[in-house]
Structure formats: structure tokens, C-alpha cells
Design goal:
The chain is of the alpha/beta class and about 350 residues long. The protein is built from eleven helices and twelve strands.
Length: about 350
């Protein structure tokens, strides 16, 4: 009897072994090629990627398909191009993407969730291969759009236990705790913090919360904050430190970044305060500036390029259907300088 209307058997899912056999390479070589890491020539990587796409290789039901987009374009959203921090993260990402045959398009949001949403809407209309966002605090509509999309999404620079898709960053609260722990061990009793306008940078607010947590444990509940208007980091650090010294009399000031800390050191100098005898100063990020100051700055070293490379590699794995850890928190390093 004819079975013309019967449903044909479901095709067997392609395995990584099938891709390796077709390409005449090892499974490890296929994995490395799909993740965009070193050890595979560009010619062989391109050949393996082509075979994987031809075979519709998707190793598990949670993988976002190799053929999700018809583009080799990765969209990257950064808060700003100013300074070294995001430039170094971007450098790590772009070099990794270029090795894997992907291009990138970049936009800046100036820390605005609304601007990020507008950019995500526009980017999705271009059908990119993947999306990268800075931080984990987004407009609700951005969450909804990207959660509903099959595109791989990477969040960088911060961390969350529930990322949109993938996350590679640092724990800013714990970084603040490390600063607070160092300050208390050095005997500082009256800390203060120079930041940005409230709500502008939630990562800085998380570090402040970490400092306050440590001081709260020793009975100090007052950690004043100066929030100068948006301007150059050097000027903001100078103004913020001057305000705190005149109004709060702290014995140590922690700054949003090293550039602000330099401005704060100039404020101390103009007010006749000796560092670290009269005032302790702590920065953040361990930028190049920190190593050329008259006194080596006490700061936190962040793994910026490593973050970019790791995030890009994980995103490439996700694009190509390779199982990958969703949430990676990279360690930071406390750098004890001569300003505390």
C-alpha cells in the first residue's frame, strides 16, 4: 500500500564527529575552529565553518543556530570611546572576531539605556550574527527584544546570575569590598567616594556599595559621595575631592577610575595635603597613568583585554552551536601602591 501522505523519518542530527570526518580533522580541531581560538589556520577554519553550516551542525537544543543570521556582522554597544577601558576590551574582541572571519559594527550609548534600545532595534533589522552589550542593566524592551530573538547575545564588563544569553565580566561589588578591606587594614577610618551623577554608572555604584559593606562591618555607616557633573575625569576628580575634603574631612578618598584619582591627587596637593600621610587615594582599572605618577597609585587592575578575548571566543562558540558556560566572572587584582 502506498504511503504517499506519511511523514518521512526525522533526519538524524549532525554531530561534531560528522563535521570532523567530513573535514578530515580531529574533533578538537573542529571545536577550536568553531570557537575562533588559536591553533587552526585561517584556511582550515573557513573550510570547517563552511562544512558545519552545510551540515546544519547544532549540537544541542539550547544552541543558537549556525544559520540564525545571514551575516558575519557582530554588533557591539559600548558606553563610550573615551579612555582606555572600553578601547582595550574592544581591541580584544575585534582581533578575535577578525581571526574567525567576522566583522563588527560599533555604537556608543553614553550610558543611556534608551540610546542602547534604539541601537538594538536598528541592529536587529540588519540581521547580525550576534549582539554585544555593555553591562547587565538594560531597558525592559531591550531585554524583551533580545530574549525573543534567536541571536546570540553577550553582556560584558559586569556580571549577573541570569544573563540574556552569555555574560563575561567582573564583580564590581567584590572589587569595592577589596578596596574597603585594604583601607580598613591600613587604618583609614573615614572613607569617601568620588563618582558620577546618580544612576549614570551602576558599576561604580556597586563598588561604592562594596566599600560601604566593609565599613559597615566595623561600625562605620557614613561613606559620603561626591557626584560632580559630567566633564573630564581629571576635572571631576579634582572638584569631587575638593568638595569632600572641605565638607567631610575624609582620611581616604576612593575614585571611580584612575584618571579621577589623578585629579584628586592634584586637589590634595593644592590644599597642602600629603599623600598618603594626610590623605589616602585609591583609583580603579590600573590604567597606564597609574604607573607614571610621582607616587604609584593604589588601584584595582581589571582584565580588560582578556575580557574582550574571552567574551568574543565564547560568543563565537555560541554562534557555532558549541556548548559554553553562560556566565564567567573574571578575577580582578588589587594593586597596593604608594598612595595608601
Amino acid at each position: 500500500m502506498a504511503l504517499g501522505n506519511s511523514i518521512p523519518p526525522r533526519a538524524k542530527a549532525t554531530r561534531i564527529e560528522d563535521v570532523a570526518a567530513k573535514a578530515n580533522v580531529s574533533i578538537m580541531t573542529v571545536s577550536r575552529a568553531l570557537r575562533g581560538v588559536e591553533g587552526v589556520s585561517e584556511k582550515k577554519r573557513a573550510e570547517i565553518l563552511k562544512i558545519a553550516r552545510t551540515l546544519n551542525y547544532v549540537p544541542n537544543s539550547n544552541a543558537r543556530s549556525l544559520a540564525v543570521a545571514n551575516s558575519n556582522l557582530v554588533g557591539i554597544s559600548l558606553p563610550t570611546f573615551a579612555g582606555e577601558v572600553f578601547a582595550e576590551i574592544l581591541n580584544g574582541m575585534r582581533q578575535t572576531f577578525e581571526k574567525a572571519g567576522y566583522s563588527s559594527v560599533i555604537d556608543t550609548t553614553e550610558y543611556s539605556r534608551d540610546a542602547e534600545l534604539i541601537w538594538v532595534r536598528r541592529l536587529l533589522s540588519w540581521q547580525p550574527a550576534a549582539v554585544i552589550l555593555t553591562g547587565v542593566d538594560h531597558h525592559p524592551e531591550t531585554y524583551a527584544l533580545l530574549k525573543a530573538s534567536p541571536l546570540p547575545v553577550l553582556e560584558i564588563w559586569d556580571h549577573t546570575d541570569d544573563p540574556i544569553d552569555l555574560c563575561v565580566g567582573i564583580d564590581h561589588f567584590k572589587a569595592g569590598q577589596a578596596i574597603g578591606q585594604h583601607a580598613t587594614e591600613r587604618g583609614y577610618k573615614c572613607p569617601a567616594f568620588v563618582s558620577t551623577p546618580k544612576g549614570h554608572d551602576i558599576r561604580a555604584d556597586a563598588r561604592l556599595a562594596g566599600i560601604r559593606d566593609i565599613y559597615r562591618q566595623i561600625g562605620q555607616n557614613h561613606v559620603p559621595v561626591s557626584r560632580p557633573p559630567l566633564q573630564s575625569a581629571f576635572t571631576a576628580g579634582f572638584q569631587g575631592a575638593t568638595e569632600l575634603i572641605n565638607e567631610e574631612q575624609p582620611d581616604i578618598i576612593c575614585f571611580l577610575n584612575d584618571h579621577m584619582a589623578f585629579g584628586g591627587m592634584m586637589a590634595c596637593n593644592s590644599l597642602g595635603l600629603s599623600i598618603p600621610d594626610d590623605m589616602g587615594v585609591v583609583g580603579f582599572n590600573s590604567l597606564d597613568l597609574a604607573s607614571v605618577l610621582p607616587k604609584r597609585l593604589t588601584t584595582i587592575r581589571t582584565p580588560r583585554r582578556l575580557m574582550g578575548v574571552t567574551g568574543a571566543r565564547n560568543l563565537l562558540a555560541r554562534i557555532n552551536g558549541v556548548p559554553i558556560e553562560r556566565n564567567i566572572v573574571l578575577p580582578v587584582e588589587f594593586v597596593s601602591g604608594e598612595t595608601t
